[in-house]
């Protein structure tokens, strides 16, 4: 589904009874010699040595970290899934370089989820009715495409100032950091005392260029909101907000 930008922009898991293995036996330090000759001999007599080794390897297999940096992309490298969510506080990200390509939309954000979704873009013809039904859930937001160091793409909805120009410090700092992340790899933080987000620039990989796989902001928006847009008062989300159920 292609989003009509002009339309949207026009309005604003016990091992019971089994003793636990001490950590040093499970994962001994390299310079510690552990004499397992008696244990090995006993296991050999029982024929259980290979079995124990297999169990250990199986446990390790569950701990291996995936090196698939193409998650979220299809076989051709095109984006498959894009989430509308603020950046993780444990990962570094960059935003789309040209802020003129960032787009503003009227957004409806639910306190909980509806069919697994929380954020929806709203067409201009439905804005006023939704402002009357659920004004606290409606806001104009700047949708900023961003990409994690590993290659996963998402969009960051940042609230824009209200008609009186007021904007809370959280969103003021979010926009500032989004602009900084155009040229620097940033990890998001927060300061509850002053009620704003903070930025932690990366140092070791600051020269790495984001790989957007040929994607454009428009294609990112289409993937982010293809199933999360409201075009009429007959939309299930609108009926839900009006107390009519799904």
Q: Figure out the total of helices.
A: 8
**Secondary-structure element order, as H and E?**
HHHHEEEEHEEHEEHEH
Form type: globular
The helix fraction, in percent, is 25-40%
The class by helix and strand makeup works out as alpha+beta
How many β strands by DSSP? 9
User: What number of domains?
Assistant: 2
Sheet-strand content, in percent, reads 15-25%
Kindly describe this structure:
The protein is α+β, with helices and mostly antiparallel strands. The chain folds into two domains: 26-61; 70-241, no CATH class. Helices cover 28% and strands 23% of the residues. It is built from eight helices and nine strands. It has helices at residues 5-9, 23-26, 37-46, 49-61, 124-133, 169-180, 217-225, 236-241; strands at residues 83-84, 92-95, 103-114, 117-122, 138-148, 153-159, 186-191, 196-201, 229-230. Strands 1, 2, 3, 4, 5, 6, 7, 8 and 9 form a nine-stranded mixed beta sheet that branches. Strand 5 (138-148) and strand 6 (153-159) form a beta hairpin. The protein is globular. The two termini are 22 Å apart. Mean pLDDT is 76; it is low at 8-44 and 60-76.
In a nutshell, what does this entry contain?
The chain folds into 2 domains: 36 residues; 172 residues, no CATH class. Helix content is 28%, strand content 23%.
Q: Which secondary structure elements does this structure contain, and how are they paired or packed?
A:
Blueprint: H1 5-9, H2 23-26, H3 37-46, H4 49-61, E1 83-84, E2 92-95, E3 103-114, E4 117-122, H5 124-133, E5 138-148, E6 153-159, H6 169-180, E7 186-191, E8 196-201, H7 217-225, E9 229-230, H8 236-241
Parallel strand pairs: 1-6, 4-9
Antiparallel strand pairs: 2-5, 2-7, 3-4, 3-5, 5-6, 7-8
């Amino acid at each position: 589904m292609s989003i009509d930008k002009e339309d949207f922009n026009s309005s604003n898991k016990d091992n019971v009874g089994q003793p636990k293995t001490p950590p040093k036996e499970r994962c001994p330090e390299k310079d510690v010699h552990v004499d397992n000759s008696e244990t090995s001999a006993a296991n050999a007599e029982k024929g259980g040595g290979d079995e124990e080794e297999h169990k250990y390897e199986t446990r390790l297999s569950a701990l291996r970290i995936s090196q698939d940096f193409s998650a979220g992309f299809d076989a051709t490298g095109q984006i498959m899934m894009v989430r509308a969510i603020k950046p993780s506080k444990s990962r570094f990200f960059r935003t789309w370089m040209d802020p003129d390509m960032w787009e503003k939309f009227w957004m409806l954000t639910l306190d909980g989820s509806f069919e697994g979704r929380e954020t929806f873009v709203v067409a201009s013809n439905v804005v006023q009715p939704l402002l009357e039904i659920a004004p606290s859930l409606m806001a104009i937001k700047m949708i900023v495409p961003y990409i994690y160091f590993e290659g996963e793409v998402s969009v960051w909805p940042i609230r824009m100032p209200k008609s009186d120009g007021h904007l809370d410090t959280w969103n003021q700092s979010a926009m500032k950091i989004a602009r900084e992340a155009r040229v620097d790899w940033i990890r998001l933080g927060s300061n509850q005392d002053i009620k704003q987000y903070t930025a932690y620039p990366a140092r070791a990989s600051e020269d790495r260029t984001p790989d957007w796989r040929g994607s454009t902001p428009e294609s990112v928006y289409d993937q982010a909101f293809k199933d999360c847009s409201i075009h009429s008062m007959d939309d299930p989300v609108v009926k839900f907000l009006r107390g009519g159920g799904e």
